[in-house]
Amino acid sequence: MKKFKIIKETIEKEVVEKTICNKCGDTINHTGTEFDRNEQEEEFASFSITFGYGNKRDGNTYSFDLCDICFQKMVDGLKIAPTIDEG
Ligand SMILES: [Zn+2]
Predict the structure, then answer these.
(1) Residue 58 is part of which domain span?
(2) Is residue 1 part of a domain?
(3) The whole model's pTM is what?
(4) Ligand 1: distance of its center to the CA of 29 in Å?
């Protein structure tokens, strides 16, 4: 038989402290948990793009964040509008 007791345990964990727009440098501080994003945090989008092998970027993954303004400017700069899934 095992008897159990409740103990308080402290863990260290890496969390996002700030998000910086790679285009303009605008910065937001994160205040909540990853499941409790504030309104300002929702204005940023994170991208992770991996290029295939044989490509001149040969399997490299580019990761970056853009604020909403810079994201919109990037989209507006496309000759053909992207496909948008409003799911
Ligand atoms: Zn920006």
Answers:
(1) 18-76
(2) no
(3) 0.73
(4) 14
User: Residue 58 falls within a domain, yes or no?
Assistant: yes
Q: Which protein residues have their CB within 5 A of the ion that is ligand 1?
A: 21, 23-24, 26, 67, 70
Per the CB < 8 A criterion, the answer to whether 35 and 42 are in contact is: no
Q: How far is the CA of 20 from the centre of ligand 1 (A)?
A: 8
The number of domains in the chain is 1
d(Cα 67, Cα 74) in Å, to the nearest integer? 11
Residue 14: predicted pLDDT: 87
Distances (CA, A) of 66 to 6, 31, 37, 58, 87: 44, 19, 16, 24, 21
pLDDT tens-place string over residues 2-61? 999 999 999 998 888 899 999 999 998 887 665 555 566 678 999 999 998 888 889 899
Q: Is 29 contained in some domain? A: yes
Domain-embedded: residue 81: no
Going from the Cα of 24 to the center of ligand 1, the distance in angstroms, rounded, reads: 4
Ligand 1 mean position, distance from CA 42 (Å): 13
